Structure formats: C-alpha cells, structure tokens
Structure to design on (463 residues):
C-alpha cells in the first residue's frame, strides 16, 4: 500500500492544543515550561532509561531498515516522512545519542545526534501526538522495537516540563475529580441508569435492572462512560446479558470509567486512574471485575493493574476480565439462548481495536460472539485484521477536534479495508472507535453504521 502524494507540511502544521495552567496544575505538572526545562527534560529522560530497560534497548537496536515505514496508518494517510515510525522514533533517538552516548557527546551531528532545542521539542509535540500508540509497526519490526513505548516516553518527558495537550489533560482531570472521562456527576449517572432501565422495560417487557453502587454484587462492571450516554445500546446490552444468566452486578459512581488516559500522558496518572477501579472493587466487596467495550481501557486494566495497584487477591477471580471474554465463555457453555435471525437483513464486519488485539490479546472472543449472533459476518482482508489490524485513527489521545485532519488521514487504510467487505455494519468493542468511525465514514462517503459487539449480542438474546 503506497502513501498518498501529500505535502509533508500538511501533517507538520497540524498540532494538538497545548494545555494551560488550569489543566496542568491539578495533575501535578508545571503550569508553564520552566526556565531550566532542558535540564529537567533530560533528567526525566535519564530516569526512564534507567527504569525501562526496553526503552534503552529500543534506542540502540534499531538499524533503520524501514520495515515499519509503510505499516503506519498515519504515514500511509499523510505521506509525511516524519510519520514513518522509524523517522518519528529518530526524532527522539537523536536526542538520546547527543546526551546519553559517548559518540554523540563527542561528535554531535557527525554521530547523527542533536541538541534538545525548542525546534526539536516542537517536533516532538507535533509528531508524538500524530502517533496513536497503535503498535502496528512493532508487529513488522524484525527486532521487535515497540515505537509506541518510545511515543509514551516522549510524551512523559514533555509532560514533566509542562508540555502536554489540552484534550488529554482535561480528560484526566475529570477522571480524577469526578470518576469518568466525560465529567458525568453521580446524580446524572444514576438518572441515566434509571432511564435505560425504562428503555429495557419497553423493549423486552422485563424488569432488567442497571444497579449502581450495589455492595456485595458478584460483578463490578466498569464501562467506558460513553456507554452510559452516547452508546446506550451497548450499555443496555451489558444489562441484558447479565439478566439472561442471572448474574448480580453493579456499576460504581466512584469509578464510572474504564478508559485510562494516563496511558497517553504519564505513568503517575495511569496508576492513579487505575487505582480508582481497584478501590471501587474493594469497597463494594465484589467478587469479579469486568471491563466494558473499550480498547485502551482493556490494555490498561489487563496489562498494568497487577503491577500498578495489585495484586487483586481480594477478588474471587484476581484479574480483570473483558466483557467479550465473559460473553464468549457463556456462549461456549450453552448458557445463552440466541436467535441469529434478530440480526438478519444486515451484513456485519469486525474491526479489531488496536489495544484489544495487539495490546491485550483479545482477538477470537468478539468473533465467536458475532458468529453466534449474526448470519452474514464477513472479515476484512487478512493483512488488516487481528494482530495486523489498522488503527481507527482516533486512539492514543487523538480524538479531539483540532486533530480531525490527522484522524481522517490515519483512518484511510482502515476505510479501504472496510470497503472490500460490502458490509452495512461495522462492529467494534471500543468506545474510541465508536466515536471515531461515524466521523470517518461521513468524511469518506461510506454508507454504513457503527455498533458495539454487545449491541448485536443483546438483539439475539432470547429472554
């Protein structure tokens, strides 16, 4: 797949809005770039190299072979050479050489090393926020270099000197202060739960509850907060699934958000947001923790909970489970009565969210569910699915208006793959993808709808 003939300046001139004092200070970040910003940034760089041996390895092992170049959806969509993963990482690596290698200290530019200047910092802010941390490049790297980890390190260094995006810091502030990314207060969460109970009553004739803050429930479900408002069919799908198998469950108003934007800023916030979920599970005395339909929520919960705030020995099942794992297990065991014909009349394909497939190993379960509830299910081309899936273009903290052009460019390879299926519906278990794809389809003139996997499962469940 060739990159389009676009001018590199198109991508170079697209920037995230920088966070100001009111977003930085609540996160313990400098309200503005300090006078000695370079020294502080290099101190943070040194700290990360010491703490993360993989990062140190990635700095030295890359031979710039370019195997990753045409694998990045943002390079394919923009044509900007700096959006090749190897080139983006080189923006970071040349500073590493200058300050942390003998050759760079002695020979400078002759050793392809460069000082950390204002211009370099601006390049970092531009291009490390045109990377969605999707990790597709890592699948194809012969040395296993994970460029997403380099992106995460660059963002953490920038945050340490007060250089961060307004969108990401605003979302994290809401999660810390209110408990979810949308800033939904406790009363509104409860009101929405009651409203959706009424909707379920009208749809099914059954008293399907959507419990909130119920102590002693078997399951704490932590959904992305968008499911309570924007993706109501997904939220009702959770409730119908639990009702069908008689599982006592609850949500928490203290931790009403599965998504963890700390993954897109720094380790401290990743840990802090994750701790709310652990504390909610402990305080509500639940037995199991289930994560709803969100890609980066699953990566943060599955990959990091135990080391960030674990172990979760107080749970009967001491590790998080994804809602798709839970549902697929029930289907395999014959616990659900399903009617596929409820989803007749549409053709469905599946989009693997990056952080579910590559970042969380959740690949087969959503497909098991879809094949059990849909008669006409089609896969996208084999080199664009499962571990090789293309990003939706809006992950990694990019889902903000000022980066719309970047998002549309990054989504182009996925749209091309989707068009080959002729599908009417794109099913995906990720709130970010569900927010991004309607904009993408409108931009590219695609006549299709976006739904959650739970949406289709709920339609097929017979109760």
């Amino acid at each position: 797949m060739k990159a389009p003939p676009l001018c590199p300046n198109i991508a170079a001139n697209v920037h995230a809005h920088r966070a100001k004092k009111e977003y930085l200070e609540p996160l313990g970040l400098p309200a503005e770039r300090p006078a000695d910003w370079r020294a502080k940034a290099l101190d943070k760089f040194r700290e990360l190299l010491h703490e993360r041996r993989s990062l140190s390895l990635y700095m030295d092992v890359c031979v710039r072979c370019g195997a990753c170049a045409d694998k990045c959806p943002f390079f394919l969509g923009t044509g900007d050479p700096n959006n090749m993963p190897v080139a983006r990482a080189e923006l970071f690596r040349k500073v590493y050489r200058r300050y942390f290698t003998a050759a760079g200290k002695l020979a400078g530019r002759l050793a392809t090393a460069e000082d950390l200047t204002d211009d370099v910092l601006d390049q970092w802010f531009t291009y490390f926020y045109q990377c969605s941390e999707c990790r597709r490049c890592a699948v194809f790297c012969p040395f296993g270099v994970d460029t997403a980890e380099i992106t995460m390190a660059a963002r953490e260094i920038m945050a340490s000197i007060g250089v961060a995006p307004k969108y990401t810091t605003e979302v994290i502030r809401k999660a810390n202060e209110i408990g979810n990314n949308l800033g939904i207060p406790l009363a509104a969460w409860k009101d929405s739960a009651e409203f959706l109970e009424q909707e379920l009553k009208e749809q099914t004739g059954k008293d399907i509850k959507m419990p909130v803050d119920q102590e002693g429930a078997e399951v704490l479900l932590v959904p992305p907060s968008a499911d309570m408002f924007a993706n109501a069919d997904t939220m009702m799908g959770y409730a119908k699934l639990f009702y069908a198998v008689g599982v006592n469950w609850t949500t928490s108003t203290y931790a009403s958000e599965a998504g963890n934007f700390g993954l897109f800023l720094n380790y401290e916030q990743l840990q802090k947001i994750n701790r709310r979920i652990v504390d909610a599970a402990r305080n509500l005395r639940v037995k199991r923790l289930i994560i709803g339909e969100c890609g980066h929520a699953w990566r943060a919960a599955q990959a990091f909970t135990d080391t960030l705030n674990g172990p979760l020995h107080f749970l009967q099942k001491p590790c998080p489970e994804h809602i798709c794992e839970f549902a697929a297990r029930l289907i395999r065991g014959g616990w659900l009565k399903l009617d596929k014909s409820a989803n007749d009349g549409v053709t469905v394909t599946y989009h693997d969210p990056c952080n579910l497939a590559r970042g969380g190993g959740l690949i087969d379960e959503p497909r098991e569910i879809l094949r059990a509830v849909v008669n006409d299910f089609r896969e996208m081309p084999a080199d664009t699915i499962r571990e090789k899936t293309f990003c939706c273009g809006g992950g990694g903290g990019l889902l903000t208006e000022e980066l719309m052009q970047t998002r549309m460019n990054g989504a182009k390879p996925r749209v091309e793959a989707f068009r080959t299926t002729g599908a009417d519906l794109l099913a995906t278990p990720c709130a970010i993808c569900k927010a991004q794809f309607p904009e993408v389809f409108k931009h590219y003139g695609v006549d299709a709808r976006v739904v959650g996997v739970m949406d289709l499962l709920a339609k097929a469940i017979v109760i």
Confidence is low (pLDDT under 50) at residues 1-8.
